[in-house]
Design a protein that fits this description.
Length: 189
Protein backbone atom coordinates (compact mmCIF):
# COMPACT_ATOMS: atom_id res chain seq x y z
CA UNK A 1 0.00 0.00 0.00
CA UNK A 2 2.35 2.63 -1.29
CA UNK A 3 -0.32 5.35 -1.03
CA UNK A 4 -0.75 4.73 2.70
CA UNK A 5 2.98 4.84 3.37
CA UNK A 6 3.50 7.91 1.16
CA UNK A 7 0.64 9.79 2.84
CA UNK A 8 2.02 9.03 6.31
CA UNK A 9 5.49 10.19 5.33
CA UNK A 10 4.17 13.29 3.54
CA UNK A 11 2.47 14.31 6.77
CA UNK A 12 5.68 13.74 8.69
CA UNK A 13 4.04 11.13 10.90
CA UNK A 14 5.71 8.07 12.37
CA UNK A 15 3.97 4.72 12.58
CA UNK A 16 3.65 5.37 16.31
CA UNK A 17 1.94 8.74 15.70
CA UNK A 18 -0.62 7.20 13.36
CA UNK A 19 -1.19 4.19 15.61
CA UNK A 20 -1.89 6.44 18.62
CA UNK A 21 -4.18 8.72 16.61
CA UNK A 22 -6.24 5.79 15.34
CA UNK A 23 -6.15 3.55 18.39
CA UNK A 24 -4.52 0.65 16.55
CA UNK A 25 -1.21 -1.05 17.25
CA UNK A 26 2.01 -0.34 15.37
CA UNK A 27 2.13 -3.96 14.07
CA UNK A 28 -1.40 -3.50 12.69
CA UNK A 29 -0.30 -0.33 10.90
CA UNK A 30 2.77 -2.09 9.52
CA UNK A 31 0.51 -4.84 8.17
CA UNK A 32 -1.74 -2.25 6.51
CA UNK A 33 1.28 -0.60 4.89
CA UNK A 34 2.15 -4.02 3.44
CA UNK A 35 -1.39 -4.44 2.07
CA UNK A 36 -2.45 -6.84 4.83
CA UNK A 37 -4.92 -6.64 7.70
CA UNK A 38 -8.54 -5.62 8.09
CA UNK A 39 -10.57 -2.88 6.48
CA UNK A 40 -11.77 -1.49 9.83
CA UNK A 41 -8.29 -0.37 10.89
CA UNK A 42 -7.57 0.81 7.34
CA UNK A 43 -10.62 3.08 7.40
CA UNK A 44 -9.44 4.59 10.71
CA UNK A 45 -5.97 5.24 9.26
CA UNK A 46 -7.46 6.75 6.09
CA UNK A 47 -9.31 9.30 8.21
CA UNK A 48 -6.14 10.36 10.04
CA UNK A 49 -4.09 10.59 6.83
CA UNK A 50 -6.78 12.33 4.77
CA UNK A 51 -7.19 9.48 2.28
CA UNK A 52 -10.31 8.39 0.40
CA UNK A 53 -11.33 5.33 -1.59
CA UNK A 54 -9.92 5.67 -5.08
CA UNK A 55 -12.71 4.05 -7.05
CA UNK A 56 -15.61 6.19 -5.84
CA UNK A 57 -16.23 9.96 -5.73
CA UNK A 58 -16.48 11.59 -2.30
CA UNK A 59 -19.92 11.25 -0.77
CA UNK A 60 -20.82 8.02 -2.55
CA UNK A 61 -21.14 4.66 -0.80
CA UNK A 62 -17.94 2.74 -1.58
CA UNK A 63 -19.47 -0.66 -0.81
CA UNK A 64 -22.47 0.00 -3.04
CA UNK A 65 -20.15 1.24 -5.82
CA UNK A 66 -18.19 -2.00 -5.58
CA UNK A 67 -21.39 -4.07 -5.86
CA UNK A 68 -22.60 -1.86 -8.71
CA UNK A 69 -19.39 -2.39 -10.66
CA UNK A 70 -19.65 -6.16 -10.20
CA UNK A 71 -23.23 -6.14 -11.48
CA UNK A 72 -22.32 -3.87 -14.41
CA UNK A 73 -19.62 -6.34 -15.42
CA UNK A 74 -22.19 -9.16 -15.34
CA UNK A 75 -20.37 -11.11 -12.63
CA UNK A 76 -22.35 -12.96 -9.95
CA UNK A 77 -21.36 -12.81 -6.29
CA UNK A 78 -20.49 -16.49 -6.41
CA UNK A 79 -18.26 -16.06 -9.45
CA UNK A 80 -16.43 -13.04 -8.01
CA UNK A 81 -15.96 -14.82 -4.67
CA UNK A 82 -14.49 -17.81 -6.50
CA UNK A 83 -12.12 -15.60 -8.51
CA UNK A 84 -11.03 -13.71 -5.39
CA UNK A 85 -10.58 -16.92 -3.43
CA UNK A 86 -13.03 -16.14 -0.64
CA UNK A 87 -16.47 -17.32 0.43
CA UNK A 88 -19.68 -15.78 -0.87
CA UNK A 89 -20.60 -14.51 2.66
CA UNK A 90 -17.20 -12.73 2.78
CA UNK A 91 -17.98 -10.99 -0.51
CA UNK A 92 -21.48 -10.11 0.68
CA UNK A 93 -19.98 -8.43 3.79
CA UNK A 94 -17.55 -6.54 1.56
CA UNK A 95 -20.33 -5.30 -0.73
CA UNK A 96 -22.75 -4.40 2.06
CA UNK A 97 -20.56 -2.70 4.66
CA UNK A 98 -17.01 -2.80 3.33
CA UNK A 99 -16.05 -5.37 5.94
CA UNK A 100 -13.27 -7.87 5.40
CA UNK A 101 -9.58 -7.88 4.63
CA UNK A 102 -7.45 -5.46 2.65
CA UNK A 103 -6.22 -8.35 0.50
CA UNK A 104 -9.78 -9.39 -0.40
CA UNK A 105 -10.71 -5.84 -1.36
CA UNK A 106 -7.49 -5.44 -3.37
CA UNK A 107 -8.21 -8.62 -5.31
CA UNK A 108 -11.83 -7.59 -5.95
CA UNK A 109 -10.70 -4.18 -7.23
CA UNK A 110 -8.15 -5.82 -9.50
CA UNK A 111 -10.69 -8.25 -10.98
CA UNK A 112 -13.27 -5.48 -11.45
CA UNK A 113 -10.73 -3.10 -13.01
CA UNK A 114 -11.13 -0.52 -10.27
CA UNK A 115 -7.95 1.31 -9.32
CA UNK A 116 -6.47 2.78 -7.27
CA UNK A 117 -7.64 1.54 -3.88
CA UNK A 118 -6.77 4.81 -2.13
CA UNK A 119 -6.32 8.43 -3.15
CA UNK A 120 -5.40 11.62 -1.41
CA UNK A 121 -7.79 14.49 -0.92
CA UNK A 122 -7.01 17.79 -2.63
CA UNK A 123 -6.49 20.58 -0.10
CA UNK A 124 -9.55 22.80 0.18
CA UNK A 125 -9.12 26.52 -0.26
CA UNK A 126 -5.40 26.33 -0.92
CA UNK A 127 -4.41 27.59 -4.30
CA UNK A 128 -1.25 28.96 -5.80
CA UNK A 129 -2.09 32.55 -4.93
CA UNK A 130 -1.34 33.44 -1.31
CA UNK A 131 -3.93 35.06 0.91
CA UNK A 132 -4.09 38.86 0.84
CA UNK A 133 -2.07 40.74 3.38
CA UNK A 134 -0.71 44.23 3.92
CA UNK A 135 1.97 45.21 1.36
CA UNK A 136 4.38 45.95 4.21
CA UNK A 137 4.26 42.26 5.18
CA UNK A 138 4.93 41.13 1.63
CA UNK A 139 8.67 41.76 1.59
CA UNK A 140 11.37 39.36 0.58
CA UNK A 141 14.23 39.67 3.02
CA UNK A 142 17.15 38.12 1.14
CA UNK A 143 20.36 39.54 2.63
CA UNK A 144 22.23 41.56 -0.03
CA UNK A 145 25.44 39.55 0.52
CA UNK A 146 23.62 36.28 -0.17
CA UNK A 147 21.91 37.71 -3.26
CA UNK A 148 25.27 38.98 -4.55
CA UNK A 149 26.87 35.54 -4.05
CA UNK A 150 24.04 33.78 -5.91
CA UNK A 151 24.06 36.30 -8.75
CA UNK A 152 27.87 36.16 -8.93
CA UNK A 153 27.73 32.39 -9.39
CA UNK A 154 25.21 32.53 -12.24
CA UNK A 155 26.12 35.92 -13.83
CA UNK A 156 28.46 34.51 -16.51
CA UNK A 157 25.58 32.47 -17.93
CA UNK A 158 22.87 35.13 -17.67
CA UNK A 159 21.62 36.95 -20.76
CA UNK A 160 18.39 38.43 -22.04
CA UNK A 161 15.54 39.28 -19.69
CA UNK A 162 15.23 38.49 -16.01
CA UNK A 163 11.94 38.57 -14.11
CA UNK A 164 12.16 38.90 -10.33
CA UNK A 165 8.81 37.65 -8.96
CA UNK A 166 9.34 39.24 -5.55
CA UNK A 167 11.37 42.46 -5.67
CA UNK A 168 11.02 43.06 -1.94
CA UNK A 169 13.92 45.25 -0.85
CA UNK A 170 15.69 44.74 -4.16
CA UNK A 171 18.58 42.50 -3.14
CA UNK A 172 18.33 40.42 -6.33
CA UNK A 173 16.74 42.97 -8.67
CA UNK A 174 19.33 45.66 -7.91
CA UNK A 175 22.19 43.17 -8.09
CA UNK A 176 21.51 41.77 -11.57
CA UNK A 177 24.25 42.62 -14.11
CA UNK A 178 23.60 45.83 -16.09
CA UNK A 179 23.51 43.99 -19.46
CA UNK A 180 20.28 42.23 -18.47
CA UNK A 181 16.81 43.54 -19.23
CA UNK A 182 15.44 43.55 -15.65
CA UNK A 183 11.76 43.36 -14.67
CA UNK A 184 9.84 42.57 -11.50
CA UNK A 185 6.25 41.77 -10.73
CA UNK A 186 3.86 41.29 -7.83
CA UNK A 187 0.57 39.48 -7.65
CA UNK A 188 -2.09 42.17 -7.86
CA UNK A 189 -5.66 42.17 -6.71
Amino acid sequence: MDTLLAARRARGMTQGNVARATGISVPTLRALERGEGGLGPLIAVMEVLGLRWGWVPDGEDAAAALAGRRKARGISQGELARRIGCSRPTLIALERRLAGSVATLARALQILGLRPMLRGVAPVGRGLVPARNAPARDLVMTPPDLAAAVIGHFAPGLSGSVLDPARGQGAFYDGFPAHLDRHWCEIGG
